[in-house]
């Protein structure tokens, strides 16, 4: 097979266990004999290195008399000049020189003023991780841990609400005379319907509980349908004549302020948000992923500098009974090996961030720390940044909340269809933002590992909220926060078939981090599809 | 049949009945007569249950010539023609036929035909043709799989007769079946869960649409809102018919489709073969069962396809005896031993010993084929195991005593010995015949066919036909051309051609030593072991004592020279079975024909252990006399009689019968007037206007004025003191006659008439305990036997002769104790325990007659031999009909041996499936739905015709319980069971917000004055207090809504709550569940301490005890209350009216040559039925009771008395023994055993507890209040007490080390090890603080 395209160069290198910057690959592709150039590059690379840099390739090509001068073709991977923002999508100039990989839609390989940049500036990415449990799991499964995690939840979320109502502690409410107005910020302890069809909510603070009655004919009764136990809300109302219960007039969720406006990157840069590869499953969509990896080498993907993976990188083992019968790779270490190989085909100058999901070989209870050393060793230093689930990833000044999304199942099961369903996962995500908590309900589907802090609280509003898990594509904007569920890379499994779930396979949402504040989603979000 | 025998039984029965009738007239029993009537015949029952006139008559017609299945199919024609039932519409005709079929197959004793079939409809296919749909309801469960499946076949047959097209399912309907059956299995559980591909295949091919009403709460998530499917929920009845009927019973249905020209279900064969995957091409490969049909293409030997099904859900502590079809496993031998019947398999007693005593008579094993499970019987006329001893010698052990001697020196069990299965077993399971092992029976037929005279040889005292001298065997083979005698035929088929050549070279290089032994190089030992040739090992060589037939077979002469080489062998011989099987090569070089010695190996593992123990209520009681709260936790009548009570000393207030004396008008609770001595009658009074109401014929008393149900009971103050002393006086006993006399707290019967206390006094004196109906019972595992020796039954020939046995099985006069006699159908053998118990019962009965009824004693036994000839009632689990049996002798095996015809049907009652029960797993308590708890442990349960499924447990599960004094404790669960639900259940609601739905007579615990009493659920009343489960290790799902009724300690050591309401609700479920709890028989359900359900087993009762003491009046007056009570009795067994499986027992004394040859063709059992005789063939002839057999055995109680499973201590001990045995057995891969234990036992536990931990409740240590989540206050919101977790690290991580050890030690798969590793990481991750990890602790382990 001829090796002239960057994608093929990348996979040739990946087969040899290397990955490389895009510029390096371009250089290799442009060599008169790319095959020979690769061989030389690989042979001469310093031992212990797994990433082929542009410098190295240049040296290899220079040292070789066979290397020809670069034809002056602009090199992809250049940071765009500031003036080009907003114009790229419609940039009419299409290069014909490397037409082979032009896949349509305004692929701009020739950009005015683009010059090769040194890879060192390329890899100087700005990724900052916060809210990651990894290495800080201090819980030891004691009662005190359970207590502190819920207290922390209450304290941090109640702060969000204190400004909106005048909170009276439950014991103070107890002492208040009938008929007076009151307000309370509390964690939902119980929700029951009364015989008359009204709602009785037991709200809890650190002093005790207080019952709230929401009459069924009030407008706010519909808010009760959205309530989950263990979320924190504020209620205003009137205390009953006997002083025993409060009739609710208003229910407040912590929510994202309507005034929220996302931060943006200050240069043209994009992130690819994918999730749920399930490598090792017989249904892993290898072809689609290959196409995606290849695409990342095209000029069209020029500005994609970040690849965020929302969990379930591998199919894992023992996730469900007789899973081994549906695995193409039965050994979990081999699954990660294979996954690491796949990552090598991704241009080396793309920063990869990975969180675990419920199929990964970490604890199921959330928050989930990153992989143990036994697994991390599989990945080379140049490979992804593996962090916990959830994690806050700040790139180029844009804050992206990454969460695998196990709680979405519960949200969808608990809330009415129109508020959360599998076909529109963004609605369920919006609910989590509204509650400012990633997995509010305790005791049901979602498992928690008790820690000192509640890592599932959404303290700061993120600019982008990214989940996976439900294998459905969905995106939307909730009060200015871009919500994306990025489908999956696994074809329908026999289990999914049996329950008639049709997964959406091979989608890569590409987010323009510098355009997040645009009014039209189309301006900052492109959904790339790589499925058959 | 033997008319004299029955007449004798009946006349004895009549005599006894006459005595009992006189006694009952004199006593103060609820009724003045014996309350067990005789049963009517089956045809009547069917007609009356269906209400279709003319069915009974037609059934009786058909019964003569047809089996019940065939009769059901015949009736289809009658319904279609209108000759039976006057139905006009086509649907009504089909419906009538379907219901009748189910009724016939269930002998007209269950409600399935009425309640289980909802309706039949004719609908339209997409192509415009019509099809039939049958809607099933939950109660179809009680019909059992065969009847369920046959109902579909009947509908199909009716449809073809009515010229209606088949059902053509839409694709989404097919997928719906797949999803729904899976959903139902998850939700409720199926005995057999078809794989998706299997369900899809069935759904595509069923010519009848199966549907039915929704039974589950869960809805399918995929294939919803289908046009032709009314519901999105699972349709339980349909799922049962689909999975447990069609999928599970395919082989049985096939038998009947073959007999019908009109009905053709060719797809059943694919279903049976499992060759339905992805269409047609694939089918060929997996069509292994019939590769003998390949005709001339001689690719390999005929072998049934190995099947792993029986290994599913392996239980820790119950060993595997052989992996599927593995060499070294049980070798199939055909024949029927005299202690062999349906669902039994014979193994050599030496085998039972050498598998570390895990097998005893009656131990159930799960088997690869022909059936799923079999009860083990000892037979010593088959071959025992072959073992390698520590010194390297290989020996076949054909003697149990010898087995015990060598047991400790056994290094490996190279072969488990023979496994005797009768032909009828293959008929019953419609399993293709598997190739027969070469045995003396077969050889004998061939010898005769080849011109030999086996009878003459057999008569020659110098020759043992089964074990001839080597020279004789060679002589026979060479002179007659008969294959070499099996005694000298070895397992050449287990040897590859290459190893045969190695062996041949070793023989060439071998020598004959001065002792005449063959000396071979030591390397040959391994090959000799495969062949199962006995030999001895020395430093550098092995010696074979009996070598001549062996070397001759391999084409050597006595000088150890041969005239062949492998290269010269015909290709066909060298490449047979790819060179893996040397039998053709051996045939080519042998100077005489050689047969395959053991072509069929049968994999097996242990199922449940055998049983023999007395039946008691929980807790045990001596009398059904009520003493309220006055007797303390022990329900001690003596204490009650002396108790200081608010009502007065020794007085209790209770709801009791209101009876009135017709003569003097005295009102009393008793059945006999204390004043004038006349009989009293129940006085029904309207609760409103207080008029006395005469009950109508149906026993219903309604006040027409007030339209109220009149009540037969009232609150009465009863003087226990007076009754007690009066009773003592009456029977002339002192209090010192017994240790304790236990009564009941209250009565659960409709009229609440107490039992005469005198009976209790005498029971207490003889230490026997009363069951709920007043009878005394003993439970035993049933095993069949058709011929017995007086000597093995511990009786002498005179006793047996006295029973009417005059000749032995050969017709010779009966003179010696060791002559074999053919067992009469109602004669039974008691286990030692049962005999002792019946002796105690007899002593009680005699005292009762003398001291209470003032009559002569009836039994007057002085030793157990006196029991011989006495009549008993036999009841199989959950029957409502007793069968009269006669004791013929005793056995040390812990089983009840009886004729295969001596049996009946079953039933039970219990918890609603959604009940949350609290169980201890890994030292911590978790709450689970009882359906989950039971379903996950229903390891291929025994199932009866009523659908109850029971699995015995080994103590790996325990539950929080309550001792008699109210102390919280923890007890093991000994069995789990699932039962068909009755029509009504009782819901008990409490002030604490906890409620419970149970069967009406489910035992609840009522607390009053610190006593903890057992009452039936329907007896609980608002205001009663029941104990709340809040002990230190109890968790429940619901939280107590504290506002209303705070749990308060109520005298006992546990808090109680008030019952706010009990209501009878229509049952919305198909199954209820139960756990059997050791000792206390109490457990926690939905946060309430309750009693478990009463367990039921096969049992015997002494005749006179039943006649004297049984009363329906004692039985709970609720649906289900009459189960397991002898409401009727059968005095003689009509073999034509019993379940078919008893007819599929063969009754021949030898199998013909053609049979053995047919096994090599793997013929269907039906193909040889003409040359075989099963019991069914003799029905209606004068030989109906003539059960001949092919194999004798010295002692039907040989082998260990009890399975090691019952004698070993802890779960871990059992598991270690299981794994160690696996290591020793050549046929077992211990790594697979370990793997399966981890898979079915440890992993679910680890996963479950880890999950439970991360979503657990917390509980107040002080007041016991439970919170769904930790309260933000940190302390109890109620009492301010400390709150703590309910699931701790200990329970999560308990098994991780053991699992990892077992995985490593026994070589589990890497996949499994990795799963455990990931779990270990998860556990560490949750429970270890990253900041102060004890680094490297793993490195030191």
TrEMBL record, chain A:
<comment type="function">
    <text>Possesses two activities: a DNA synthesis (polymerase) and an exonucleolytic activity that degrades single-stranded DNA in the 3' to 5' direction. Has a template-primer preference which is characteristic of a replicative DNA polymerase.</text>
</comment>
<dbReference type="InterPro" id="IPR007185">
    <property type="entry name" value="DNA_pol_a/d/e_bsu"/>
</dbReference>
<keyword id="KW-0540">Nuclease</keyword>
<keyword id="KW-0548">Nucleotidyltransferase</keyword>
<keyword id="KW-0238">DNA-binding</keyword>
<comment type="subunit">
    <text>Heterodimer of a large subunit and a small subunit.</text>
</comment>
<keyword id="KW-0235">DNA replication</keyword>
<dbReference type="InterPro" id="IPR029052">
    <property type="entry name" value="Metallo-depent_PP-like"/>
</dbReference>
<feature type="compositionally biased region" description="Low complexity">
    <location>
        <begin position="115"/>
        <end position="142"/>
    </location>
</feature>
<feature type="region of interest" description="Disordered">
    <location>
        <begin position="50"/>
        <end position="142"/>
    </location>
</feature>
<dbReference type="GO" id="GO:0008310">
    <property type="term" value="F:single-stranded DNA 3'-5' DNA exonuclease activity"/>
</dbReference>
<dbReference type="InterPro" id="IPR024826">
    <property type="entry name" value="DNA_pol_delta/II_ssu"/>
</dbReference>
<dbReference type="GO" id="GO:0003677">
    <property type="term" value="F:DNA binding"/>
</dbReference>
<keyword id="KW-0808">Transferase</keyword>
<keyword id="KW-0378">Hydrolase</keyword>
<feature type="compositionally biased region" description="Polar residues">
    <location>
        <begin position="87"/>
        <end position="108"/>
    </location>
</feature>
<keyword id="KW-0269">Exonuclease</keyword>
<dbReference type="Pfam" id="PF04042">
    <property type="entry name" value="DNA_pol_E_B"/>
</dbReference>
<dbReference type="GO" id="GO:0003887">
    <property type="term" value="F:DNA-directed DNA polymerase activity"/>
</dbReference>
<dbReference type="InterPro" id="IPR011149">
    <property type="entry name" value="Pol2_small_arc"/>
</dbReference>
<dbReference type="GO" id="GO:0006271">
    <property type="term" value="P:DNA strand elongation involved in DNA replication"/>
</dbReference>
<keyword id="KW-0239">DNA-directed DNA polymerase</keyword>
UniProtKB/TrEMBL annotation, chain B:
<keyword id="KW-0548">Nucleotidyltransferase</keyword>
<dbReference type="GO" id="GO:0003677">
    <property type="term" value="F:DNA binding"/>
</dbReference>
<keyword id="KW-0239">DNA-directed DNA polymerase</keyword>
<dbReference type="Pfam" id="PF24846">
    <property type="entry name" value="PolC_DP2_cat"/>
</dbReference>
<feature type="domain" description="Hint">
    <location>
        <begin position="908"/>
        <end position="1030"/>
    </location>
</feature>
<dbReference type="InterPro" id="IPR006141">
    <property type="entry name" value="Intein_N"/>
</dbReference>
<keyword id="KW-0238">DNA-binding</keyword>
<dbReference type="InterPro" id="IPR056172">
    <property type="entry name" value="PolC_DP2_cat_dom"/>
</dbReference>
<dbReference type="GO" id="GO:0008310">
    <property type="term" value="F:single-stranded DNA 3'-5' DNA exonuclease activity"/>
</dbReference>
<dbReference type="InterPro" id="IPR036844">
    <property type="entry name" value="Hint_dom_sf"/>
</dbReference>
<feature type="region of interest" description="Disordered">
    <location>
        <begin position="626"/>
        <end position="648"/>
    </location>
</feature>
<comment type="subunit">
    <text>Heterodimer of a large subunit and a small subunit.</text>
</comment>
<keyword id="KW-0540">Nuclease</keyword>
<feature type="region of interest" description="Disordered">
    <location>
        <begin position="274"/>
        <end position="308"/>
    </location>
</feature>
<dbReference type="InterPro" id="IPR016033">
    <property type="entry name" value="PolC_DP2_N"/>
</dbReference>
<dbReference type="InterPro" id="IPR003587">
    <property type="entry name" value="Hint_dom_N"/>
</dbReference>
<dbReference type="GO" id="GO:0006308">
    <property type="term" value="P:DNA catabolic process"/>
</dbReference>
<keyword id="KW-0808">Transferase</keyword>
<dbReference type="InterPro" id="IPR004475">
    <property type="entry name" value="PolC_DP2"/>
</dbReference>
<dbReference type="Pfam" id="PF03833">
    <property type="entry name" value="PolC_DP2_N"/>
</dbReference>
<keyword id="KW-0269">Exonuclease</keyword>
<protein>
    <recommendedName>
        <fullName>DNA polymerase II large subunit</fullName>
        <ecNumber>2.7.7.7</ecNumber>
        <ecNumber>3.1.11.1</ecNumber>
    </recommendedName>
</protein>
């Amino acid at each position: 097979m001829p090796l002239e395209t960057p994608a093929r160069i990348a996979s040739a290198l990946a087969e040899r266990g290397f990955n490389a910057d895009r510029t390096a690959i371009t250089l290799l592709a442009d060599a008169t004999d790319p095959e020979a150039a690769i061989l030389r590059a690989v042979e001469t690379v310093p031992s212990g290195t797994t990433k082929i840099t542009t410098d190295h390739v240049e040296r290899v090509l220079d040292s070789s008399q066979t290397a020809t001068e670069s034809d002056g073709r602009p090199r992809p991977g250049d940071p765009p000049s500031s003036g080009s923002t907003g114009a790229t999508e419609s940039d009419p100039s299409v290069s014909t020189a490397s037409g082979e990989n032009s896949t349509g839609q305004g692929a701009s390989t020739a950009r005015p003023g683009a010059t090769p940049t040194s890879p060192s500036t390329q890899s100087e990415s700005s990724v900052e991780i916060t809210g990651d449990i990894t290495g800080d799991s201090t819980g030891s499964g004691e009662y005190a841990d359970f207590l502190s995690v819920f207290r922390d939840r209450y304290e941090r979320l109640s702060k969000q609400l204190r400004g909106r109502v005048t909170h009276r502690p439950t014991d103070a409410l107890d002492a208040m005379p009938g008929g007076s107005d009151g307000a309370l910020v509390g964690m939902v302890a119980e929700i029951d319907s009364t015989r008359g069809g009204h709602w009785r909510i037991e709200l809890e603070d650190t002093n005790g509980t207080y019952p709230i009655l929401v009459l069924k004919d009030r407008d706010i009764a519909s808010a009760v349908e959205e309530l989950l136990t263990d979320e924190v809300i504020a209620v205003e109302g009137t205390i009953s004549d006997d002083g025993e219960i409060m009739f609710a007039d208003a229910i407040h969720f912590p929510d994202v302020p309507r005034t929220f406006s996302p931060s943006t990157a200050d240069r043209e840069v994009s992130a690819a948000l994918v999730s749920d590869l399930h490598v090792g499953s017989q249904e892993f969509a290898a072809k689609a992923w290959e196409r995606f990896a290849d695409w990342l080498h095209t000029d069209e993907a020029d500005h994609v500098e970040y690849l965020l993976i929302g969990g379930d990188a591998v199919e894992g083992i023992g996730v469900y009974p007789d899973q081994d019968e549906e695995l193409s790779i039965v050994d979990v270490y081999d699954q990660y090996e294979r996954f690491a190989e796949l990552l090598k085909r991704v241009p080396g100058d793309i920063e990869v961030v990975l969180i675990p999901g419920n199929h990964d070989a970490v604890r199921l209870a959330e928050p989930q720390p990153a992989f143990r050393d036994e697994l991390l060793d599989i990945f080379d230093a140049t490979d992804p940044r593996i962090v916990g689930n959830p994690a806050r990833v700040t790139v180029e000044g844009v804050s992206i909340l990454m969460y695998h999304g196990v709680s979405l199942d519960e949200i969808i099961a608990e809330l009415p269809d129109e508020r959360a369903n599998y076909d529109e996962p963004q609605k369920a995500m919006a609910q989590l933002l509204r509650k400012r908590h990633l997995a509010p309900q305790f005791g049901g589907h979602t498992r928690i590992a008790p820690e000192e802090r509640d890592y599932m609280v959404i303290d700061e509003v993120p600019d982008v909220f990214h989940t996976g898990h439900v294998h459905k594509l969905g995106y939307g904007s909730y009060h200015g926060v871009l919500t994306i569920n990025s489908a999956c890379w696994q074809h329908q499994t026999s289990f999914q078939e049996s329950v008639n779930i049709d997964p959406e396979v091979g989608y890569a949402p590409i987010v323009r981090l510098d355009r997040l504040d645009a009014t039209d989603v189309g301006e900052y979000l492109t959904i790339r599809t790589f499925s058959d | 049949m033997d008319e004299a025998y029955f007449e004798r039984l009946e006349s004895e029965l009549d005599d006894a009945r006459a005595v009992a009738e006189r006694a009952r007239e004199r006593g103060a029993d609820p009724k003045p007569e014996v309350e067990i009537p005789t049963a009517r015949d089956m045809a009547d029952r069917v007609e009356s249950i269906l209400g279709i006139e003319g069915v009974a008559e037609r059934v009786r017609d058909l019964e003569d010539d047809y089996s019940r299945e065939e009769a059901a199919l015949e009736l289809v024609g009658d319904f279609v023609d209108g000759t039976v039932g006057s139905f006009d519409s086509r649907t009504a005709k089909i419906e009538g036929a379907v219901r009748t079929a189910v009724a016939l197959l269930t002998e007209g004793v269950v409600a399935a035909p009425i309640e289980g079939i909802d309706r039949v409809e004719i609908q339209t296919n997409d192509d415009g043709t019509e099809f039939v749909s049958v809607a099933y309801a939950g109660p179809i469960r009680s019909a059992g799989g065969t009847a369920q499946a046959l109902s579909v076949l009947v509908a199909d047959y009716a449809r073809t007769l009515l010229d209606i097209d088949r059902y053509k399912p839409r694709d989404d309907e097919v997928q719906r079946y797949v999803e729904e059956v899976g959903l139902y299995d998850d939700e409720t559980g199926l005995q057999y869960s078809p794989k998706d591909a299997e369900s899809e295949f069935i759904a595509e091919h069923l010519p009848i649409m199966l549907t039915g009403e929704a039974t589950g709460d869960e809805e399918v998530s995929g294939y919803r809102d289908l046009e032709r499917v009314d519901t999105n929920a699972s349709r339980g009845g349909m799922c049962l018919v689909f999975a447990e009927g069609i999928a599970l019973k395919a082989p049985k249905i096939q038998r009947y489709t073959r007999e019908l020209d009109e009905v053709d279900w060719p797809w059943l064969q694919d279903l049976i073969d499992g060759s339905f995957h992805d269409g047609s091409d694939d089918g060929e490969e997996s069509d292994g069962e019939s590769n003998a049909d390949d005709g001339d293409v001689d690719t390999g030997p005929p072998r049934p396809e190995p099947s792993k099904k029986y290994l599913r859900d392996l239980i820790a502590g119950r060993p595997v005896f052989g992996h599927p079809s593995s060499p070294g496993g049980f070798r199939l031998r055909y024949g029927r031993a005299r202690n062999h019947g349906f669902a039994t398999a014979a193994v050599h007693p030496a085998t039972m010993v050498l598998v570390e005593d895990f097998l005893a008579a009656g131990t159930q094993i799960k088997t690869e084929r022909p059936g799923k499970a079999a009860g083990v019987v000892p037979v010593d006329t088959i071959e025992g195991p072959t073992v390698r001893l520590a010194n390297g010698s290989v020996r076949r052990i054909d003697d149990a005593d010898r087995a015990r001697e060598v047991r400790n020196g056994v290094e490996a069990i190279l072969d488990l010995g023979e496994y005797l299965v009768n032909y009828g077993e293959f008929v019953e399971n419609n399993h293709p015949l598997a190739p027969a092992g070469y045995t003396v029976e077969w050889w004998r037929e061939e010898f005769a066919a080849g011109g030999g005279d086996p009878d003459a040889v057999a008569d020659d005292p110098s020759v043992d036909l089964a074990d001839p001298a080597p020279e004789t065997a060679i002589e026979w083979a060479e002179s007659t051309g008969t294959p070499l005698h099996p005694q000298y035929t070895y397992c050449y088929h287990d040897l590859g051609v290459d190893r045969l050549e190695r062996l041949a070279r070793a023989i060439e290089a071998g020598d004959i030593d001065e002792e005449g032994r063959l000396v071979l190089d030591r390397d040959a030992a391994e090959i000799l072991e495969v062949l199962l040739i006995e030999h001895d090992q020395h430093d550098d060589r092995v010696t074979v004592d009996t070598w001549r037939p062996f070397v001759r077979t391999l084409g050597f002469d006595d000088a150890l020279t041969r005239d062949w080489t492998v290269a010269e062998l015909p290709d066909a011989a060298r490449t047979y079975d790819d060179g893996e099987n040397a039998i053709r090569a051996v045939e080519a070089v042998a100077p005489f024909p050689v047969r395959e010695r053991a072509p069929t190996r049968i994999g097996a593992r242990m199922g449940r252990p055998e049983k023999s123990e007395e039946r008691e209520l929980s807790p045990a009681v001596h009398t059904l006399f009520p003493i309220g709260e006055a007797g303390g936790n022990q329900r001690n009548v003596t204490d009650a009689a002396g108790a200081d009570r608010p009502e007065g000393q020794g007085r209790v207030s209770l709801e009791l019968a209101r009876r009135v004396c017709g003569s003097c008008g005295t009102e009393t609770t008793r059945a006999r007037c204390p004043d004038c001595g006349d009989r009293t009658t129940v006085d029904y009074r309207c609760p409103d206007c207080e008029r006395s109401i005469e009950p109508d014929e149906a026993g219903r008393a309604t006040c027409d004025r007030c339209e109220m149900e009149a009540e037969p009971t009232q609150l009465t103050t009863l003087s226990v003191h007076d009754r007690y002393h009066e009773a003592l006086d009456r029977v002339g006993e002192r209090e010192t006659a017994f240790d304790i006399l236990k009564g009941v707290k209250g009565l659960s019967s409709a009229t609440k008439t107490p039992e005469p206390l005198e009976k209790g006094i005498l029971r207490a004196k003889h230490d026997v305990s009363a069951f709920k109906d007043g009878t005394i019972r003993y439970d035993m595992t049933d095993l069949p036997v058709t011929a017995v020796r007086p000597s093995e039954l511990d009786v002498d020939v005179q006793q047996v002769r006295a029973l009417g046995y005059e000749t032995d099985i050969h017709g010779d006069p009966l003179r010696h104790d060791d002559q074999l006699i053919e067992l009469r159908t109602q004669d039974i053998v008691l286990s030692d325990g049962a005999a002792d118990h019946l002796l105690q019962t007899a002593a009680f009965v005699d005292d009762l007659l003398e001291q209470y009824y003032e009559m002569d004693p009836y039994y007057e036994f002085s030793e157990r031999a006196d029991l011989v000839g006495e009549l008993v009632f036999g009841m199989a689990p959950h029957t409502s009909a007793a069968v009269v049996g006669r004791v013929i002798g005793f056995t040390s095996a812990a089983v009840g041996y009886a004729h295969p015809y001596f049996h009946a049907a079953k039933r039970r009652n219990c918890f609603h499936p959604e009940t949350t029960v609290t169980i201890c797993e890994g030292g911590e308590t978790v709450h689970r739905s009882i359906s989950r708890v039971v379903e996950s442990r229903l390891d291929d349960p025994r199932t009866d015709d009523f659908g109850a499924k029971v699995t015995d447990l080994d103590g790996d599960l325990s539950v929080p319980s309550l001792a008699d004094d109210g102390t919280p404790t923890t007890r093991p669960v000994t069995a789990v069971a699932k039962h068909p639900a009755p029509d009504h259940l009782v819901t008990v609601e409490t002030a604490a917000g906890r409620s419970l739905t149970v069967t009406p007579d489910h035992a609840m615990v009522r607390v009053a004055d610190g006593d903890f009493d057992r009452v039936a659920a329907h007896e609980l009343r608002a205001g009663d207090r029941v104990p709340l489960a809040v002990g230190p290790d109890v968790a429940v799902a619901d939280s107590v809504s504290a506002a209303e009724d705070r749990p308060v300690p109520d005298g006992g050591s546990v808090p109680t709550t008030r019952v706010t309401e009990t209501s009878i609700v229509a049952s919305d479920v198909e199954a209820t569940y139960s756990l059997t709890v050791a000792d206390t028989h109490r457990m926690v359900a939905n946060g309430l301490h309750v009693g478990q359900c009463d367990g039921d087993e096969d049992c015997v009762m002494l005749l006179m005890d039943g006649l004297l003491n049984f009363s329906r009046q004692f039985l709970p007056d609720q649906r289900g209350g009459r189960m397991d009570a002898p409401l009727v009795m059968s005095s003689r067994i009509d073999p034509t009216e019993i379940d078919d499986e008893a007819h599929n027992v063969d009754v021949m004394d030898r199998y013909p040559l053609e049979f053995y040859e047919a096994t090599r063709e793997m013929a269907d059992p039906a193909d040889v039925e003409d040359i075989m005789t099963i019991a069914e063939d003799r029905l209606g002839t004068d030989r109906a009771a003539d059960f001949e057999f092919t194999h004798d055995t010295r002692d039907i109680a040989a082998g260990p008395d009890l399975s090691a499973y019952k004698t070993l201590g802890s779960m871990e001990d059992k598991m270690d023994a299981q794994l160690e045995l696996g290591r020793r057995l050549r046929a077992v891969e211990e790594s697979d055993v370990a793997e399966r234990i981890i898979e079915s036992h440890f992993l679910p536990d680890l996963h479950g507890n880890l999950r439970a931990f991360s979503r657990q409740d917390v509980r107040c240590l002080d007041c016991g209040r439970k919170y769904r989540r930790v309260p933000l206050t940190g302390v109890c919101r109620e009492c301010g007490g400390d709150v703590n977790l309910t699931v701790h690290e200990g329970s999560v991580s308990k098994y991780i080390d053991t699992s990892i050890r077992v995985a490593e030690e026994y070589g589990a798969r890497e996949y499994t090890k990795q799963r455990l590793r990931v779990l270990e990481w998860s556990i560490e991750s949750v429970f270890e603080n990253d900041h102060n990890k004890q680094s490297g602790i793993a490195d030191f382990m």
